[in-house]
Amino acid sequence: MRENAKYISGIALLLLLGLFVSSCLTPPEFPVTPAIDYFDVTFQKGASDFDADTLAVTVSFQDGDGDLGLSKDFDNGPPYNNLFYFVKPDGTFLRLSDRNNPPYDTLPAYTFPYYCTNYVVEDIDTFYVQQNKYHHNYFVKYFTKKNGVYEEFNWVTAFDPICGETFNGRYLLLGNPNREKPLEGKLKYKMSSAGFELLFRQDTLMLEIFILDRALNQSNTIRTPDFVLKNITLGG
Questions:
Q1: By CB neighbour count within 10 A (0-12 exposed, 13-18 middle, 19+ buried), where does 192 fall?
Q2: Mind listing the domains of the chain with CATH numbers?
Q3: Which of 42, 51, 65, 88 is a Cys-bridge partner for 180, taking CB atoms 3.0 to 4.6 Å apart?
């Protein structure tokens, strides 16, 4: 159901406070923990039946020291690494085959959804891993609303036995990481999939969102208003 699930991008239209105020004025002060607020959500159909559709959410943000965003090319080591591997006392990495022997027999079995979330296959072996939340800095959950009740749509487990992927991802650097400046603006985050209309054509949806800064401070969590795809389609 997912196509190009990792095609996720953040586009910032930002105002770097302090650069656009005169020297006689004091730039506004914000907390160093980022704060976000809902701005809008739009749906764009692909140019053809072979192109993925795009759901885009825009939030406004404020951050006191401007440490927002991660580099796509360089921020892949701790604390932003993707996975945690585990080393046994003999110096080798923990593998699926170690489940046959205590104390590793408590590891989850190689069954759905654990083979999606806790195991990676490399070369001819399968290793036990845990995912690092802080590899991402933008977090989004999908909810459908039926009879007034919200129910989360879990992209990872929705297509049993096929592994899905969340729409959590990264927005790129919004300011100079070497200069602490108050920062505010709007962040547009795009999510692409060929399955949006197939899955949610008539559904009422709501998204829940928060972000992290480079220091791993977590913003407040916001919820979008309820929406139906056909009602937010651009050019529709």
A1: buried
A2: 8-72+138-231 (2.60.40), 83-130 (no CATH)
A3: 65
Alpha helices, H only, the chain: 114-117, 196-200
CA separation for the pair 81, 234 (Å, rounded)? 36
Q: What are phi and psi of 135, to 5 degrees?
A: -65, -25
The owner of tokens 């993707």 is: 82
Q: What is the pLDDT of residue 228?
A: 98
Residue 108 CA neighbour count, 13 Å, CB half: 14
pLDDT digits (tens, 9 = 90+) for 58-70: 999 999 999 999 9
How many C-beta atoms lie closer than 10 Å to residue 15's C-beta? 13
CB contact at 8 A, 103 and 94? no
Q: Each residue of 220-234: pLDDT tens digit?
A: 999 999 999 999 999
Tell me if 182 sits within 8 A of 15, measured CB to CB: no
- What is the identity of the amino acid at 62? Q
> What predicted TM-score, i.e. pTM, was given to this entire model?
0.87
Which pLDDT score is estimated for 9?
38
